[in-house]
Design goal:
Structural class: mainly alpha
Oligomer: single chain
Strand order of the largest sheet: 5-4-3-6
CATH superfamily of the largest domain: Tetratricopeptide repeat domain
Number of strands: 6
Largest sheet: 4 strands, mixed
Strand content: under 5%
Shape: globular
Number of helices: 28
Number of domains: 4
Distance between the termini: 50 Å
């Protein structure tokens, strides 16, 4: 990220500590150590300057990570949450550049959580954080979440960025990459053209504008994707960029699974024009770097690799080899050789060299290098490249995605050309496969080939019946599964797969065609968490119009006042059932009532974990059957708050029989229950202490009382609405 763009973002978040930036006594990562009675501070200016120095010296491979880790610790120790958010944004970019996507997940989650706690929505800093988080998710292949975040960023940018802000161009550039990766090159090209128009207006000298160079490179690659259908290129994040700076495909970007040969394009003139236009954009990018004398920039490697790929597709293998070789040298200089970017570019260079040495294909039969930008993790495939596995079993979500790719999508394109670019597809709703919890036992009901196809209301009125008829004609058996046996409650209007109007689909789950607005909290409170979980789970395989994702995102974004009100209610129930009534029922010898008290306490505590971690990042607690499966999954994620509560709740349940009924052979209230009762009491009180500590950490309370009923007024003081439905008596 450029200094200017980063400074503007940080100032929007209040990210500059009130410290002496000239002091030489702080740590390398920008901290001012605590002295006698002097609190530690964190200087964001100095942190960013130090990080820039590391990158400029091409020392990122060895020095960037320890520097960033130290900065994160320094900002935390100084209590500088705004400075910490700056560091997290930089770590997102670094981990992305290293292909360390699993580690990046908790950084993304933590950054979003921190931004919400800092009440950043509506600020430039929030827009930038959303862009960085979306780009990290896209790099990890989590396209559904990435598109959600990009759309949030676009909406946020409407009120936080001027129409010709360079960062807005970067956002359109990033979104184009997602469209390209998910097989929507025309949408990708439109986003890039929008970005270039913004830059042409904003730039003081377009001939040396690096953001424009990045956009030219991406336009070249997406034009290949459009020109050579089924053989286009993938866009992947550039290791050196962040929101507000240039974002482009890194060295060697290409489709990791495409075949080397494709059929001759039916219109040779269009193909030649497309390749010529792609080469024009790729050459324009190189010219900008050369005009600015930036041939040793890491971004230059991406431009070289893009040019090499265009040359390869045009059968100009000599130029392709030369450009890939040059790109490889720049990557080694900037990042070293132990990165996905180096390995993939080396593989693409090999492909180009083989083509030059041993094969001179017909120029009318274009090829592209066979590797993608980053080596996929074992078992990972891009969504547009799924193939029939040779060895089932297969999870329901993967089966559904493959059914869409190989059956439903071709049917739509062949039978309903007017719906091309208008049909959303995926799998959301009721059913274990929508949560990812299905196993072989799940195959006995409501399981099998199928997916959801969603249309706008107008398209559904015009085409819904015909599309449903063609969907019904698709194969009933697929990849060894099927036919699908639907239970009575999963048929008719309650069917789980098939063709739906978007609003009708969500109304069928929640009763609402779209999420209630923030000013109607009573409607939010009528939606239980299991219902919201069913409306927001699953995966979206395609959504060219964005209408499905936008509607689903509305249900994900619970108003914070509602969330705080529910947290207060859960605190009250844990106190009432677990801390107060459970001991009283045990003293009375009423094991059945005590058992119900345990259940109520456990349910409230499990819900609280999801609410504390915020639904937009943690999701909602599903219905009882999958409650602990979801809690275990959430607890296993790094940076989850109250992550060990789930395991302690399971221990409470394991002890509940002996606690409430004395255990086998002792009878209700017998002496055998005493040890179990003591353990359950200690477990509940320990959970309550940790909840209070978490309330303190999130700034929701400063009271030390561990009886959770007394924490409720402190939490409810943060509810901004005066609506009585949000407040306890």
């Amino acid at each position: 990220m450029s200094d200017e763009a980063r400074r503007e973002t940080d100032e929007a978040a209040g990210m500059y500590a009130d410290t002496d930036v000239n002091s030489q006594n702080g740590s390398q990562a920008g901290s001012q150590p605590a002295g006698d009675g002097v609190p530690a501070t964190f200087d964001t200016d100095r942190f960013l300057a130090g990080l820039d120095a590391i990158y400029e010296a091409h020392e990122a491979p060895t020095k960037a990570e320890p520097y960033l880790q130290q900065a994160m610790a320094d900002a935390e120790n100084a209590g500088n949450d705004a400075g910490l958010l700056t560091v997290l944004n930089e770590i997102m970019g670094f981990y992305r550049s290293q292909g360390r996507h699993d580690e990046n997940q908790w950084i993304v989650q933590r950054a979003i959580e921190l931004g919400l706690r800092l009440q950043l929505p509506g600020s430039e800093a929030w827009t930038t954080t959303l862009i960085n988080a979306a780009t990290a998710m896209r790099a990890a292949g989590r396209y559904d979440q990435a598109q959600d975040l990009y759309h949030q960023a676009l909406e946020s940018a409407k009120s936080t960025m001027p129409a010709h802000d360079r960062r807005l161009a970067a956002l359109h550039n990033n979104l184009s990459m997602l469209y390209s990766e998910t097989g929507r090159p025309t949408l990708a090209r439109h986003e890039l053209e929008t970005a270039l128009r913004i830059l042409e207006t904003a730039s003081t000298d377009i001939s040396t504008d690096l953001d424009a160079a990045s956009t030219h490179t991406n336009l070249a690659l997406v034009l290949l994707q459009e020109t050579l259908p089924g053989n286009g290129t993938e866009h992947h994040p550039d290791p050196t960029t962040e929101a507000g700076d240039s974002t482009q495909s890194p060295a060697g970007a290409s489709d990791a699974t495409r075949p080397d040969h494709v059929a001759r394009h039916t219109d040779e003139a269009d193909r030649e024009r497309g390749l010529a236009e792609a080469r024009r954009h790729a050459s324009a990018a190189l010219a900008i770097y050369r005009a600015g004398h930036l041939e040793h920039s890491a971004h230059y490697a991406s431009a070289l690799a893009g040019y090499a790929q265009v040359c390869f597709a045009s059968a100009d293998f000599r130029s392709s080899v030369d450009a890939y070789r040059h790109a490889l040298a720049v990557i080694e200089e900037c990042y070293g050789t132990d990165t996905d970017y180096y390995r993939t570019t080396a593989a693409n260079l090999h492909d180009a060299q083989v083509a030059l040495d041993h094969a001179t294909p017909d120029p009318a039969t274009p090829r592209v290098p066979s590797r993608g930008t980053a080596t996929p993790e074992p078992g990972h495939q891009p969504p547009h490249a799924l193939h029939t596995p040779q060895h089932p079993p297969m999870k329901g979500m993967a089966l559904s995605r493959t059914f869409w790719e190989q059956c439903a999508k071709p049917m739509v394109e062949r039978r309903h050309p007017r719906l091309r670019g208008r049909v959303a597809a995926g799998l959301i709703g009721h059913g274990s496969e929508c949560y990812g919890f299905d196993d072989e036992q799940s195959h006995d009901h409501d399981f099998g080939p199928g997916c959801c196809l969603w249309l706008t209301d107008e398209d559904y009125r015009r085409f819904g019946a015909d599309l449903q008829a063609d969907y019904d004609a698709l194969p009933e058996t697929f990849m060894g599964y099927g036919p699908r046996e639907s239970t009575a409650r999963a048929q008719g209007p309650a069917r789980r797969v098939g063709v739906f109007a978007i609003g009708d689909f969500f109304a069928g789950i929640t009763g609402y065609r779209a999420a209630p607005t923030d000013d109607r909290p009573h409607e939010w409170l009528m939606l239980d968490e299991a219902t919201l979980a069913a409306a927001t789970n699953g995966e979206v395989f395609a959504d060219p119009l964005g209408a499905l994702l936008s509607t689903r995102q509305g249900f994900k974004t619970m108003p914070d006042d509602v969330r705080l009100s529910l947290i207060s209610k859960r605190l009250g129930m844990i106190a009432q059932a677990g801390q107060y009534n459970l001991p009283r029922m045990l003293k009375r010898g009423d094991g059945a009532a005590a058992w119900l008290a345990v259940n109520a306490c456990v349910e409230a505590a499990a819900s609280l974990v999801f609410l504390i971690n915020t639904p937009i990042t943690a999701g909602y607690m599903p219905f009882y059957k999958w409650r602990f499966a979801a809690l275990r999954r959430l607890s296993g994620r790094m940076a989850t708050r109250l992550s060990d509560v789930g395991a302690r709740l399971e221990r409470i349940l394991a002890l509940s029989s002996a606690t409430c009924f004395g255990g086998a052979g002792f009878g209700e209230g017998g002496k055998g229950s005493a040890p179990a009762q003591a353990d359950v009491h200690d477990l509940i009180e320990g959970i309550c202490r940790d909840i209070v500590a978490e309330l303190h950490r999130q700034g929701l309370s400063d009271a030390d009382e561990t009886f959770l009923e007394w924490q409720r007024p402190y939490v409810e003081a943060h509810i901004t609405s005066a609506d009585p439905v949000l407040h306890s008596l």
